[in-house]
What does this fold into?
Amino acid sequence: MKYAPGYSFRSSDFRGQPPRKQRPDGATPPLARIVPPHRSEPGDDGKRDCARGEWCSSWHPVTEDGVTRRAPARTYQPFCPVDRHQIETDLHQMPAQLVHLAAEIGNPVRNGQMIRVPFGPRILIRLDVDTLMRAIVESLSSWHERVADADSLTYPSAADSRLQRQMVAVRNAERALIHRVDVMLALDSQPMWRTRRVVTERDPKGRSTEDIVENEYLDGTDAGMEIFTLRYLCRAILGETRARPEELLGVPCRQWEECGQMALRRADLPSDPGAPAWWSQCAACGDRLTEAEYREWVALCAAYERHRRKEPATLENLPGVA
It folds into this structure.
């Protein structure tokens, strides 16, 4: 028998989060545009928003018209200092990530879904891993060429790139870019070749995909966003991403006047055993509660729900009365 607490929170009593935007066509966005760069004009002080937008590592909460949102940090460079250092870290990890992807390319997908192939030869490699490895080589090699041209380095010729193994190309690109991140981020917009996977309607029984090569204008900000995206996809395929936090549905934030969001979730355990352990944390404003404070706040919200004032019954609001 399911336990009935005797109360329930209604979504109409509190302000909820806006729904997420979805692509109407259902197509997969291009690699470099999964998280589009947040471009803003410099202000009077010469600073502009971090290119990662609401995903900026140095974000701070801002409340406008009763709605709290994430505001990126203001900086003179395309990215804030924390994200700029993260680009160096992601670049340094790319060769090792490529090795891990090569070791994972022959393993079956571990998502609990079974794929049945009726006829034809079986594919012994994972196509998602193979596509990601090709994207890493293509992206880092192209930015290696741009930086070598801008900083008067030894230019990697196309003939050498075709003969190199993927690991050698990524390692050479990492060695050239890791100490020239500022040069890469300062690149101007120039046409660059990119391979995109698009959805076609050629198959009458369903959709099919094909890879096309497009010539796009990319600059240093796009380089940083590509590195962020590639690193995230590596973590997602290799199972290194954090598990989705447990959402505490129906409980509003305690900072109701300033935040006003229903975004409570279970707080992460501290890495330091001596640090205090928090029970919940608001994803919008970051307000944290201990277990005792959380239970007291839930009891207070439950009392409000039980004892909130009802509209008195009159002749005008009775059912069936015009």
User: Anything to note?
Assistant: Residues 246-270+279-307 form one domain. Residues 81-104 form the longest helix (24 residues). The chain has two domains: 31-110+124-238, 246-270+279-307. The helical segments are 81-104, 127-150, 158-163, 166-177, 181-185, 220-238, 291-307.
